[in-house]
Amino acid sequence: MSRPSSWVGLAALLVPVAVSCPAAAQANYRSTPTGGRSALMGNTGVVFARDGSAPYLNPATIAAIDESSVAFSVNFYSYAHSRYSAWHQPGPVDAKQFGALSLGNTYNTQDAFDALPSTVCLFFTIGKWSGPLPQEKAPLDKPRRRRQKLALCLGTVERDSTSFPAVNYGSTAGGVSSEQSQSFLRNWSRFQAGPSWSGNLTDKLALGVSLHGIYTTYSVSWTSNNITLGPGDKAISSGLDSDVDARSFDLAAVAGLTYRLGKGLALGLSAQSPSAHVVSYLNGSLRSQFSGPTDYVQLENGNGSFSAPSPFRIALGFGAETARLKIEVNQTLFVPQGSSLSANVQEDTVTVANGASSSVPGVASFRERTGAVVDSAVGLEYFLTPTLSVLGGMSTDFSASPPLPATIQPSLGTFYQERMQRALVSLGVGSYGDATELLLGTQLGYGWGKALAVDGFVLPNEFATVNKSIYSAIFIIGGNVSLDALQRTLVKMQHLVIPGPRAPQ
After folding, report:
1. Domain count for the chain
2. How far apart are CA 18 and CA 427, in angstroms?
3. Which of 9, 122, 207, 447, CA to CA, is 20 to 30 A from 197?
4. What domain range includes position 210?
5. pLDDT for 202-240, tens place per residue?
6. How far apart, in whole angstroms, are the C-alpha atoms of residue 6 and residue 367?
7. pTM for this structure?
8. What is the CATH number of the domain that holds 133?
9. How far is 335 from 238, CA to CA, in rounded Å?
């Protein structure tokens, strides 16, 4: 039986890359996988990464990629089921205005099918080999001196997207009826792109460094309207609208090393520097209104600067490898930040109450902090045959954001609106051919935590905290193909489409 050809890798690379993803949470640094192999091995890669995750997890691992030039691609397709408790009555009711109101079935659920952003990398050999190329699955103590590689990568390393475009609710309790209409959209992402270099200084020691531009985007849009009808034709209407659009561009570096201990054992160490801020902006508006007991409208417009630095991170990995089995364990520390998200905003606030108006200009500063987080990951790959393997792993994705308060007054600087903890399990298969590979599998996740919801039963409306849980499944299609093998495949395709001249009869 012949080995799979380079058609396998070509098929993996031709799968289109899509651009959205399911809800995770801000300050969850593993909210988006960065490589197919890494994701299927429990989000490990500090020691054994050799796909699009390498420049982000530990650039020193790039030197272990044996092809002279190779392209990686991976696509993630997801399903997520989210449940929010008490979404439509999230906090205490203002009894003076609404009475002893207790509505039923106030939870909110959502099912979402999406395609996640992925990483794409090109790897090139720029140094000479000291001897014959070792095979991909050879033990780690093979000689690899003087190997140097350059990588050009781009990818989304964090993503949180929550969408409730139209949530309608109606209920009656104790002679009081409530009608609600809400829309909620939030997007958060970090996109990184740049070059990476890695080289083997000795047969045992490899070093690597990545320099990345980081483009962070944050946008949120709340629209909430509530009409409550009570005994005696008493009516109260209230609403809250909030829109923020912010962008930040920063620079950061990732440096790492791998060291082979012999007998298939290895250590990996990497660190990401705090990012250096370059340029940013923030535009936003906040509108709150109610009528019934009195008439009140407040409109706040603002614009200014926005900063979203990536945290300092240090990761340590241990790996063991035989001819058929590969195991890796990672521990990653994200240090706390006193100003993880911040903005300085020039505001203009107009208030109208019972026909009287006032206008107040001002400057507001907002600061959000994060705490220290330690995430763990373990993964393995076992080769059933030289061309077929199974992969699996487990990992954690804890939130670095501070605990959410029970209630909070809305502002243009209410950046953290969820706090989620996640546990992940992955399983997949790998198929290997002539300088190509194809990976298929899934990553299952469970998340639990808190989220903000609009409380329409206090005047003016405010945010209140509700419980949130999420079940998710990410389907992974990944692969690589050497550029030389890809060129040979394209030549074969050309000959099939345009046959050469026939020999004379």
Report:
1. 1
2. 22
3. 9
4. 7-497
5. 889 999 999 999 999 999 999 999 999 876 678 899 999
6. 51
7. 0.84
8. 2.40.160.60
9. 41
